[in-house]
Design a protein that fits this description.
The chain is 71% helix and 0% strand. With 263 residues, it is an all-alpha fold.
């Protein structure tokens, strides 16, 4: 049985701890849904498709088979929900369906994995750039919605602290008291103690450190297998975001420790 070479959305969701959260961008749905109805999606029919025997290039055939294999944690129900979105008659209908799935809990990791597998299969099969862009836009929107719905509360508070600090003017940003006030206000509104907040930050940082070696190994494997310019840019962007997010989290941790000591 072949192994698929895809990036798990579970890892992507975990990587929310490595970057500032972003709200789902509904405008992505409009170009995606205009084009996606023109595409015939047969991903579910290829969940265990073997590499074509007439391919002379074994490596390419293997990559094709891997890309077409659905993730093992994707249920038929997940694919059904994903295709329900694909079959929407308008971006508004798709948005309503996604909102409903978010509310009732049916927007699962498996649904996002189904979107990712379909997008990657379209890439591997050389579909037109408009179709690939449409599938990518839909996948990214679903990923944003899923991450937003499943983000740990403390991670949302870290994001609120980052936003609050960014809103300070240059003079206030250099003032410890002003920084402390931002963190205290966020925690007071959320009714979370500084101690609990610090414990969560330490847990996130520990998780990020544990992920570093795995992330580096995954990047090395991808590069060894060969990546195009677009994928290389995506890797570089993710590396930058991980580094910036860890730096932001360390800043919030230092301010929180100062708040705890001065309480």
């Amino acid at each position: 049985q072949t192994r698929r070479r895809t990036t798990s959305t579970k890892k992507m969701t975990t990587q929310m701890m490595t970057m500032q959260m972003r709200a789902p961008v509904r405008s992505r749905l409009h170009p995606a849904m205009r084009r996606v109805r023109q595409h015939k999606h047969h991903q579910h029919q290829h969940r265990h498709k073997a590499a074509p025997s007439n391919q002379g290039d074994d490596e390419l055939a293997q990559a094709m088979a891997n890309a077409q294999m659905a993730p093992p944690n994707v249920r038929e129900e997940d694919f059904t929900n994903y295709y329900r979105i694909l079959n929407a008659q308008s971006p508004e209908e798709a948005s309503e369906a996604i909102d409903a799935m978010t509310r009732d809990g049916s927007l699962t990791e498996g649904v996002v994995e189904a979107a990712l597998a379909t997008y990657q299969t379209a890439q591997s099969k050389g579909e037109g750039p408009e179709i690939i862009a449409a599938l990518k836009g839909l996948f990214e929107y679903l990923l944003d919605c899923y991450q937003r719905a499943n983000v740990p509360p403390a991670l949302g508070l870290i994001d609120a602290c980052v936003s609050g600090l960014s809103a300070l003017d240059d003079r206030a940003r250099a003032d410890d008291a002003a920084q402390d006030a931002v963190v205290r206000d966020v925690l007071r509104d959320a009714q979370m103690s500084v101690e609990e907040f610090l414990a969560n930050i330490d847990m996130f940082l520990q998780s990020m450190t544990q992920q570093d070696a795995q992330f580096d190994a995954q990047v090395a494997q991808m590069r060894a297998e060969g990546v195009d310019e677009e994928r290389e840019q995506q890797i570089a962007q993710l590396v930058d975001m991980r580094g910036a997010a860890k730096e932001q989290m360390l800043v919030i941790r230092a301010i929180s420790q100062r708040c705890l000591m001065s309480a």
